[in-house]
Each structure stands twice: as structure tokens, then as C-alpha cells.
Amino acid sequence: MFSSDTLLLATIALPFVGSLVASLLPTNARNAEAWLACGTALCVLVSLSLLYPAMADEQIVRSEFEWIPSAGLSFVLRVDGFAWIFALLITGVGFLVFLYARYYMSPEDPVPRFFAFLLAFMGSMLGIALSGNLIQLVFFWELTSFFSFLLIGYWHHDASARAGARIALTVTASGGLCLFAGVIVLGHIAGSYDLDRVLAAGDVIRGHALYLPALVLILIGALTKSAQFPFHFWLPRAMAAPTPVSAYLHSATMVKAGVFLLARLWPVLGGTDYWLYIVGSAGLVTFVMGAFLAMFQNDLKSVLAYSTLSHLGLITLLLGLDSPLATVAAIFHMLNHATFKASLFMGVGIIDHETGTRDIRRLSGLYRFLPVTATLAMVAAAAMAGVPLLNGFLSKEMFFAETIATHNGSLLDDALPYVATLAAMFSVAYSLRFIRDVFFGPPATLPRTPKEPPHWMRFPIELLVVVCLVVGIVPNLTIGPFLNIAVASVLGPNAPVFDLAVWHGFTLPFLMSIIALAGGVATYAVLRVYNLDTGPLFVLAKSRLSVGDTVSAWARRILGLLGTQRLQTQLRILVCVALVAGFLPLVGHKLLPETMELTPIDPAFALVWIIGIVCALATAQQAKFHRLAALILMGGAGLATCITFIYLSAPDLALTQLLVEVVTMVLILLGLRWLPKRLDEGLRQADSSTLMRRYVDLSIALAAGAGLAAVSFAVLTRQVLPDGIADHFLERSYTEGGGRNVVNVILVDFRGFDTLGEVSVLCIVALSVFALLRRFRPAPESLSVPERKRVQEAFDVDHPDRQPGETFADYLLVPSVIMRLLFPVIGTFAIYLFLRGHDFPGGGFVAGLSMAIAIILQYMAMGTVWVEHRIRVYPLRWMALGFAFAFATGIAAWLVGYPFLTSHMFIAHLPIIGDVHISSTLFFDFGVLAIVLGATVLILIALAHQTIRTHRKPSMPSAVADGVG
Amino acid sequence: MNAQTFLLWSLALAELLFVMAMAFSVIRMLRGPSAQNRVLALDAFYVAGMGLILTFGIQTGDTVYFEAALVIALLGFVGTSALAKFLMRGETIE
């Protein structure tokens, strides 16, 4: 037999493994996907059922794995009766939904994505059910929100699906964050995040000063997930999802996670007035409102969505009533609702599939086309309405009995039976409307002539409806033992004795059921006469209290007041805040506490700085209207910086600065070609307010610049700390890093992980630039061939003795030869820089840049087409190669038992050259080289390709992709 | 005046002259009038800068300066030629 560790781990891991496999199958493999998903679900079911003996003994099965031992967190899987029942529900409904989805999804839909998400969702749900650690539970909780987002937005070409997915994610994920905070508070109170220890600390928690914050935060999490008022609005919009998703996530499982958590933590958090009022009133409002609004929906899925809201409200209300029997009823109704609502959703899916519409007003008389489906849906709808002999009736009667019982004698408590009966009437009315309007009446003209679906598509509904019936008729033989197991694990020794019989005699709850049924029929009769489109009730229902809309409207208004889309304003705020933040720490302190003696001024060097400053200022002044002049002046400022670095003995920086300077120059020139010319007519004259603004901006800029200068001066003249970080690196560079160039050793060894992060960012930037340029549309005025080029070409055309392009070739003859000859020279130089980088100025970054310059030079000399006929640079492959090298170096250290990216020195015996000291960081540095080379060339070539692309075909955006690939 | 002082003085003078050359190039960069003037001024600026770094090298005897000068000599012209190509054809890479 398997150990419980293996079983539990398999339960949680199998769906994720299945999801991974599912994502790798071909796009149209509907059958393979369904087999895989159903097989996974069955395996999980089997491993869960193997736990039955332990569950029947009311044991708690735990297995613990180390997760973050340093933080005292372990990965705990814990199954008790309640979690077990919930896991069975998740897997069972999952299995049926997977089977159904096989037939529901059309051949055009990319199914691997769908099934992979569904399976991963199932795994996350099981994670919630089986978590024995609260932090871990929150993790899986957020995962379900995430997969729900992906599944609602599965048809991402549909705007309403995207909007629905966004709203669902916003609401449930922010609820999840609140839950996280609440759980941390709870763990703080209880002294542990372990569920068993938290459950044992109920009295401590309820008596603690932080009880209320913890309760409110956790309730926000649970109520958002279960779509309870006022967070209910996301659920109806989530109906844009494919129907299997609605059946699985938004009726049977995910929305139950909230009530699951409420029931789970009820022994700890419940039993106070706060609990009763918050949970009870949220449940009550949702219960009544959902049922009321469901009557007025015309979309079948909306009817079901609002009905789901109402039933979830009922469960929440039961949990809020804070009595053991109510909790029993809540758990029972969780199971019942999952069965009939999932089958109804699937039934609606079939109707939608077969007729092409879900609009109740258009559907009619479907019974004659779909007799079997219709019968099944009618039984399920009757269960939803609470008709006797069906499972919905049993839990609803338990609910009625609970509403009659007195809890705290408040007004709410007294009104409860009446309100409950009223809402039950509504639910009878919408169920009746669903049955009568869709299946009976004259046959309607429909987009498609409906016929019965394949048998296996109907099979899940058949099975669920049979469950509804069997549970409704012989509850004690079927659901009884399971319910006992679940209730015992939640309530422990306080578990009440309950009786699931169908007939309790002529009691008050039964009378309430009868009144609800009769009242529901009457309500439906009134509804039919009442004009649904213009009646005030309908208008009220239409103008439903959509908190989501209100919130976004307010958010937009606040954003309009406080935010801005203007770059100038944003920058102004940013700089001002930075300025204030920079000055704040100085309050009460001197900026220059102890100053070092200043070096005497070297007049030549000072002049270089003045030149640099003049260049920088002139760049700023010219940037607006004379971009080329600004660019040239910027080159001047760059060289001044470069000389400064050399003078102050930072050759590494100087080298990098120079190369970056060169690449930037080419890059901006490439971009300049596509920027429309900016005319300064009229812009120079400005009224007084504009002038005022400019002076304010100027003073802000001066203040910020002076501040930065002061800070740099303070840092540079500060007394050197005796045991500062500089000495630390200088001492250890050779002994531990094996290199004499401290800068390089820091980059590739001491701070190698940072470098890895930085080159990743570089790759992301390069890829984004590449992706953006693929869709680049130049301004119309810069589309034409540049004037000078046109003149030169025209000259060739006008003279019969000249070939086209000859003038240009003549002009560039000498430079191009030199530039071509320089390719191997610069290449060798790059290799030299790279190899010596560990001991002398150089390294992968500058080597990569120099290599990129060598390549760019060829493009400049001979043009894109010529170069790409001779050498093909594959920037993307270089980048991939670089990553492979960098990660492989890191992992190699791992494999021999050291932390990631630990360096190692070894001596290689090379023929002819002799013994060479090689550090493993050389390979890492090569990775950096390849990434820098790839990223730089990718951006530059993508820009350069704009020319041939636009000249060949003005509207074809794919040339870059073909060229660079 | 021995060789040492002579070298010192000539280095100081050379330094000053190189910096002045840079200053004059910058004036040309600022005043133009045509874009070609500015590009040539930038090139002259680079050459003068390279010379300045060489004098630093002679002063200290540190090879790093010569290497830096070498890099400017090898790659400094790329920016100039890109600018020149831009002026001649309207685009840097075609």
C-alpha cells in the first residue's frame, strides 16, 4: 500500500504535472487532452478514496515537507473529513467537466491551453483544500484567482471576456491579499501558521485585541472569493468564460473556496457578534438580492450566475448563524448546490451549443428537440427550486429550520424566516421561468435546428442528476456517512445529531417550503403578465447596484484630479519629491561632517570639465529643435566624462563609457532618420504663463542638479571608513575571486547574481524594442527617401554612362574599404578585452559592445543587404547562448555542492600556450558577452531594417522578423 | 634646465594646448554654422582628447592611458563616420 505521504503528494502534484503535459500537446488534440485530464482526475480520485478508512475513523492525515526551514515554514498537507469531502467534490466535478469540455470546445479552439489551465486550477483548488499551513493556503488561493483569470479570458479576442477576467482578478486577487494580511495577523496571534495549532487556539484568538482586524481581513478574502455582497459583481461578468469553466469554477468549486474557508475557520473565528453581523448580513443580502435579480435576467447563464450568488449567500448566511446545525446545513448545501448547479450550467452549455443562443426570450419549446437534456435540466432546476424528493429540498429545509430557531433575538433574527421564505419564492420563480420559457411553448425560430448532443457530452449531467435524485430520496444511505465525516472534522466533539429524513412530519419548515413553492408559482404568473422591458421592477433590476462600476468611476475621477498623463507634470512631481526626499535627512545635520583635504586643481583638467559642462548645457538647449547638433554636443560631453574617468584612474569605466558613447551615437542616428522634423516657428514666442512655467522648471532643475552635485561632493570628500566595503573587495579580489581587476571580479563573481539579473533586464529591453519596432509605423513625412539620397540616385539615372548607385559607391569607396578591414581588427580587440578582463580593464560587457560595434560598422559601410548576404548575425541565438552559458556556470557550482554561481579556479594545460589559469567566471563572462552582443545588435539591426522594410513595402511589418530571425 | 624639467614643462604645455584645441572644437560645435562643421569639430575634439590622454600617460608612465588612447583611436571614429554617413545619405544604415 502507499504511504499517506505519497498519496497526499500525488494528489496535489498530479494535476500540475498533467497541466504541464497538457500544455505540450498539439493544438487540436481534443481527444488526447480529454483522456489526459480525465485520467489525471481519476488518479486523484483513486488516491483520495484510498484515504477513506482513515477518514471514516475521523483521523487527520498529515504529511509535512520542509519548505523554508529558516522562516519556520513547512509545506504541510493535511486531510480531515471536511477537506476530504471538498477535495472529492473538486476532483469529481472536475472529472465530469473535463469530459464535457471535450465535446463543448470546438475544433478551432486551442485546447492545450484550456485543459492545462483547468488541470492547474484543479491542482490549486486541491491545494486550498489540503493545505495544513495558512500561508500555503493563501498561496494556492491566489493561484486559483490567477487561473480563473486566465480561464475567463480564454477567448481573449472577446472584449467582454477580457473585461470580465480583469474584474474577477482585481476583486479576488485583492481579496486574496487581504486574506494574506489576515492570515499573518492570525498566525501572529496563534503563534503558528499551522492549521492544527491555529484551530486549537480558538479562545486565545477570540479574546485577542487583534481579533477584529484579523476577522475583517479574512472575511474580505472569503467574501470576495465567494462573490458575496458587496463584492458580488465580478461573478455575473465572469460568465463570459466558456461554459465548462462557469460550471466548474464559478458554481461548483472556486466560489465555494470562500465558504470553505469560512467553515474551516468558523471554530476559531466564529461565536462572536462581529461574526454574526458581518457574515450573516453579507449572506442575507446576497441571498435575497441574487434571487431577486435572477428573475429578471434574460441570458440563461446570467440566471444561473445570479442564482449561484443567491445560493452562496444562503451558505454564507448559514455559516453566519453561528450554530452547529447551521454549519451542517451549510456543508450539505455546498455539496448539493455543486451537483445541481454544475449540471444546469452544462445543460445550458448544450442548449447554447445546439441552438446558438442563450437568450430566454428567443428560446422556446425546446422539449421536442432535446427531450433527454430537457428532462435532466428540469430535474436539476427543480432541485435548485427546492422541490421535495430532490437534494436541494433537504438542505433548504434544514436552512428553514435554522432560520426559525432563535439565535440572539435581534430584529434580524426575528425577520429571518420571512425573508428566507421570500427569497425561496424568488428562487422557485426563476427556476420555473427557466423550465417553462425554455422547454415549453411554441417552437421558436433559432439560429440552428437543435438536436440531442453526443451521449458522452450528456453523461456528466445524467450522473449529477442521478446524484440529485438519489440523495434527495435516500439521503441517509448515500450522503449521510460522508456528511458525518465532514461535520465531525469541523465541529469535533460538538457535532450535533442530525436527521436527513425526507419526511419530518408536517412541521413549520415544511410549511415554509410549501408557501415558497406556491408563492413562487404565483410570482412567476405575475412576472409573465408584467412587461419585463419597461416595468419599474425591471428597470430597478437593470440599474443594479454595481459596485464595480461605481468603484471604477470613482477611481477615474480621483485619477483625473490627482494623476496626469502629461510627461512634464509627472517629471516635475517626480523631481520635486526626490528633491524633498533628498533634503529631509539633512534636517539637523551637516552635509559635510568631516571633509578630506581637497586635491589641488590641475588647470588642464579643470578646463576639460568646463568644456564638458558647456557641451552638456548646449545639448540641453539644442535638444528641442536641432537634434543633430545636440547629438554632436552630447558626444563632446561624453568624451569629457570619459577623460575624467581615466584621469581619476577608473579605466574600466572610461572604456565602458567610450563604447556606450559610440553605440548610442549610432543608435540615435538610426532613430533620427524616422523622427519627423520639428519646426520652431511660433513655439519660440510664448505668453507670460508659459514663460513663468519655464522659469519654475528651470529653478527646479537647478535645485535638483545642485543637490545632486552637493551629494556627490559630500560622498567623494567623506573620510574613508577603515573597514569599508572597498577594502573588503580589494583584499578578497585575488584571494577569493582569482582576479586582479576588482571591478570585473565584483561583476562576475562577488555580485554575479546581480549581473545575471541585469543582463536579463537587458534582454527584456532588447526584445521589447524588437517587438515594438515590428509594428513601427513612421510618420508620413519621414516615409520618403531622404533628399540627398534622391539627388545622388537621380544623378546616376541622368547620366547614361553610370550604373544606379555608383555615385554613392564612389563616395564611400575609401571609407568602406577601411571599415571592412577593421572588422577583424576590432574583433581581435574584443577577444583581447574579454580574455584579459579578469585581471585588467575589460571583460564581457565591453567585449560584447566592441564586437557589436565591429558588426555595425559593416552595416554602415556596405548596407544591410550586402552584409546579410555574407555574415548572418543571429542576435536572438546569441542571447539564448549567453543565457545558457551564464546559467550553466551557476548550476555547475550547484551540482558540485556549492551555492549558485560559486566560482572555481583551475589550471588548464593547453598545447603551445602552456598552463593557463582559468576561472569558471570566464564562462559566465562569456555569457554576458553573448547577451550584450545579441541585445545591442538586435536593437540596432531592427532599427536599420526599417529602411529596407519601408522602401520595399510600406505596409508590410514582417520584414524585420524575417531579416533578423 | 635638465631633461626632467624640460619634459615636465613641455608636457604641461602640451596638455594645455590639447585642452585649448578641445575648447576651440567645442566652439565650432556650438557655432556651426553647418552640420558638417559640427561633425568635423567633434572628430577634432576626439583627436585632441586622445592626445590629452597620451600626455597623461607620458606624465605617469602608466600603460592604461596608452590603451585608452588606443581605444579612442580605434573606435572613436565610428561616431564621426556614422554622423557623416547620415549627412551624406540621410540614413546611417541602408
From TrEMBL, chain A:
> Which organism encodes this protein?
Hyphomicrobium facile
Membrane topology per the record?
Multi-pass membrane protein
Q: What main location does UniProt list?
A: membrane
Question: Which parts of the sequence belong to the Na+/H+ antiporter MnhB subunit-related protein domain?
Answer: 815-937
Query: Where is it located?
Result: Cell membrane; Membrane
Q: Which UniProt keywords apply?
A: Antiport, Cell membrane, Ion transport, Membrane, Transmembrane, Transmembrane helix, Transport
Say which domain of life the source belongs to.
Bacteria
What region holds the MrpA C-terminal/MbhD domain?
613-677
Enumerate the Pfam families for this protein: MbhD (PF13244), MbhE (PF20501), MnhB (PF04039), Proton_antipo_M (PF00361), Proton_antipo_N (PF00662)
GO BP term, pick one: monoatomic ion transport
Question: Which GO cellular component term is one of those annotated?
Answer: plasma membrane
Q: Which residues are in the MrpA C-terminal/MbhE domain?
A: 692-790
InterPro entries in the record, alphabetically?
CPA3_Na-H_Antiporter_A, MnhB, MrpA_C/MbhD, MrpA_C/MbhE, ND/Mrp_TM, Proton_antipo_N
Query: Transmembrane residues, as ranges?
Result: 6-27, 34-55, 82-101, 113-132, 167-190, 210-235, 247-268, 274-296, 369-390, 415-435, 456-483, 503-527, 571-592, 604-621, 628-648, 654-675, 695-716, 755-773, 811-835, 847-867, 879-901, 921-944
Output one GO MF annotation. antiporter activity
Per UniProt, residues of the NADH-Ubiquinone oxidoreductase (complex I) chain 5 N-terminal domain are: 67-115
Question: What's the name of the protein?
Answer: Multisubunit potassium/proton antiporter, PhaA subunit /multisubunit potassium/proton antiporter, PhaB subunit
Q: Where is the NADH:quinone oxidoreductase/Mrp antiporter transmembrane domain?
A: 131-406
TrEMBL record, chain B:
Residues in a coiled coil are none
**One Gene Ontology CC term in the entry:** plasma membrane
Gene Ontology molecular function, alphabetical = sodium:proton antiporter activity
A Pfam family of the record is MrpF_PhaF
Q: Which UniProt keywords apply?
A: Antiport, Cell membrane, Ion transport, Membrane, Transmembrane, Transmembrane helix, Transport
Q: Where in the cell does this protein reside?
A: Cell membrane
Q: Which residues cross the membrane?
A: 6-27, 39-58, 64-88
Membrane topology value: Multi-pass membrane protein
Similarity comment: family membership: Belongs to the CPA3 antiporters (TC 2.A.63) subunit F family.
Tell me what this protein is called. Answer: Multisubunit potassium/proton antiporter, PhaF subunit
- List the top taxonomic levels of the source: Bacteria, Pseudomonadati, Pseudomonadota, Alphaproteobacteria, Hyphomicrobiales
